[in-house]
Amino acid sequence: MRPHILPTPSVAVVIPCFRVGKLVLDVIARIPESVTAIYVIDDCCPVATGQLVQQSCDNPKVKVHFHEQNQGVGGAVITGYRAALQDGHDIVVKIDGDGQMDPILIDGFIAPIIEGRADYTKGNRFHRLRNVRRMPPVRLFGNAALSFMTKLSSGYWQVFDPTNGYTACHRLALRELDFDTLSRRYFFESDMLFQLNQARAVVIDVPMVAKYEDEPSSLRPSRILLPFMRGHLRNTVKRLFGSYFLRGFSVASAELIAAGLLIAFGSIYGSHAWIRSILDDVPATAGSVMLAALPLILGMQLLLSWLHFDVSSEPKTPLQRIIGNYPRN
Question: pTM of the predicted model, to two decimals?
Answer without folding.
Answer: 0.87
